[in-house]
Amino acid sequence: MITSQQDLLIRLQASEQQASSGQSANYSKSWFKCLNGQRPVLVSAPHACRHQRDGVEKMAEEFTAAFARILAQQTNCHAIFTTNKTTEDPNWVLRGEYKKAINEMVEKNHIGFLVDLHGMTNRHNMGLAIGTMRGRSCPGVDIKSVFLREGFALTDIDDLPPKVARKMAVPIGANKGADENENWRRLVIDHPLFTGGLRNHTVTRYATEELGISAVQIEIASVARIVQQGKTEDWPYEYSGNTKAITACVRGLCALIEENS
Ligand SMILES: [Zn+2]
Asked: Which domains does the chain carry?
């Protein structure tokens, strides 16, 4: 088990640094990694590095590979995550190398549940957006309770404050006021922007429809995911998320994996 919040944050940061130091500026033949465990659950992070969608380069979703690694260590589940820039968007293409690897891992290890991790910005005023394809991707699985136990609050989409405009989006810091620092607690299920794959060829949809297993897509806001990050080409601010939010998120994910295997 995770011994302390401090220990968890240090391990996440180290894991992310290891991941980002391996990222080259160029495309590489090897761009994702599979870790095998004993527990029949697979955690996936398909957007951990820069990727292309229909030829347009998209940002990396920082710390999602670090989350996948830590969850695999903590729960002994299997993990797959990107390790390098790629022209394939595994959450967009119908098939592809990443989905093929998932198929092989699921068959070989009798995996019955897939958790697909993504990163969203804080502009949506919520900490977690859980996509279940309106319940179709994981019928009978209680996704929310593990997070509610950790301090997240189930929120109706109608109760969300309006999305922050891109040009107004600055990191949530201690100086931004207590109200904003509590935004991370909001958890929305099947937000129209994050349904898990009603229209697109997501990893979640692939797992559900092609592999016949339960799956869920979990979008984690920066505030609940990024321990500490310097300025990048995508985001010209140094940024640290909320330690309480990050810890609650990891603990909730560990429980989700342990209780559904
Ligand atoms: Zn994503």
From this structure: 5-20+30-259 (3.40.630)
